[in-house]
Amino acid sequence: MISLAGRDILHAWGKFVFTGIGLGLLIGVTLVMAGVYRGMVDDGKALLDNSGADLWVVQKDTLGPYAESSSLNDDAYRAILAMPGVDKAANVTYLTMQVRKGDQDIRAMVVGIAPGQLGATPGWPPYLVAGRQITRSHYEAVADIAAGFKLEDRLTIRRNHYTVVGLTRRMVSSSGDPMIYIPLKDAQEAQFLKDNDAIWQSRHRTTANPAFNRPGAPGLLDAVIASQSANSFVNAVLVTLKPGHSADEVAQSIRRWKRLTVYTRAQMEAILVGKLIATSAKQIGMFLAILATVSAAIVAFIIYTLTMDKIREIAVLKLIGTRNQTIAAMIMQQALALGVIGFVVGKITATFTAPLFPKYVLLMPLDSVLGFFAVHMICVLASIVAIRVALKVDPAEAIGG
User: CB neighbours of 362 closer than 8 A, spacing ≥ 6?
Assistant: First the structure.
């Protein structure tokens, strides 16, 4: 019966192959969509891995620093360092913004890292592919290669200019934006310091306040103005633990005594995947369901068309005593062959087009295996309509046609 199915495919090979290619493009899009979701999850995990932290200390009752804004005084890390079980603690800022390179704007996450050394201070990029780490306290940057910068390039962040001294790889935010590392003081100024006009207007409103126009108020006025010009805040404190200490126990201790919110690695990963990526995951799941439905409809239509084209041949087979199981097997084999062609074309398409996407696409072997079986299941179900039509054919049609 395999020879019958093969002969029939060869008889209409053009229609069969082109249909398989069309189906393969749909399957390729499906695999890429699954890869986009996998890439988003991998970006989130890479963000946590690259931070080098065991705990994230953020503003109380917030989901910072990645899921929402968080603001801490930049001296909070000293008190955290004194907590039992804490090995290292370092301030860090995160700000997603447009970075200028000449006349071009590049969306990136600007990370402010505390002074220190690689391996001794959490938050630093763990490795470089070119150049060196930041050694000066101002105006140097390390950029992910996805941002398109090269060594010695000049970039603009707010009012300051920076020279790219190092390049790294796979340092991205949870949304896939490349990271650019700059010194902490520069990052604090970029994120928290107001521009000159805003500072002037704030001072003007403060001096016009009647509360400062009474005896003894000038000293208080100076203090308020100074606080308005300060940028002594960070988004989070990254903490590493001493060997043998439980992350949950140290986190609970910091929450209790420092009145701050603390997240462990597992909790932060749950926030990134469960809150930042959840909506995108639902959208991707809906697209996958639509693509699966469209693929099933295409397979059902083409197999039905091929079956209707050979109604008389099926009637002849019935007339000479061919069993219904044999005819059904022939049609199902054609559907499975169509699925094989489609999956091969789809896999090749996904593999070669994935690097062209602006977002990271992670094609996992397990997804390909599941996709292979899903395609064949769709083909089997789609062939049922054609099989039912074939089994209802009257053998007399072979004589009456």
Answer: 35, 38, 39, 42
Q: Mark 379-397 as b/e (b = at least 16 C-beta within 10 Å).
A: beebbeebbebbeebebee
The C-alpha angle 46, 50, 55, rounded to 5 degrees, equals 100
Q: What is the DSSP string of 357-382?
A: SSS-----HHHHHHHHHHHHHHHHHH
pLDDT at position 213: 58
Query: Given a cut of 60, is residue 198 above it in pLDDT?
Result: no
Q: How far apart are CA 62 and CA 259, in angstroms?
A: 12
The verdict on whether omega for the bond into residue 215 sits within 30 degrees of 0, i.e. cis, is no
Position 258 pLDDT exceeds 50: yes
DSSP-assigned beta bridge partners for residue 142: 166, 181
What average pLDDT does range 145-162 have in this prediction? 92
DSSP single-letter state for residue 172? B
- CA-to-CA distance for 213 and 151, rounded, in angstroms? 54
User: Partners of 58 in the beta sheet?
Assistant: 261
Quote the tokens at residue 34.
């699954």
The closest of 202, 236, 239, 206 to 220, measured between CA atoms, is 206
* Cα distance between residue 331 and residue 381, in whole Å: 12
Determine phi and psi for 162, rounding to 5 degrees: -130, 150
Tokens of 227: 């606080």
Q: Look-up: residue for tokens 């592919």?
A: 129
Residue whose C-alpha is closest to residue 44's, from 295, 266, 231, 328:
266
Q: Is residue 308 pLDDT above 60, yes or no?
A: yes
Using alpha carbons, select from 116, 370, 70 the residue that is nearest to residue 233: 70
CB 188 within 8 A of CB 115: no
* Sequence ranges of the domains in the chain: 2-43+278-400, 60-193+231-259
Q: What pTM was estimated for this model as a whole?
A: 0.79
Residue 321 DSSP label: T
Tell how strand 140-144 and strand 130-131 pair up. Answer: unpaired
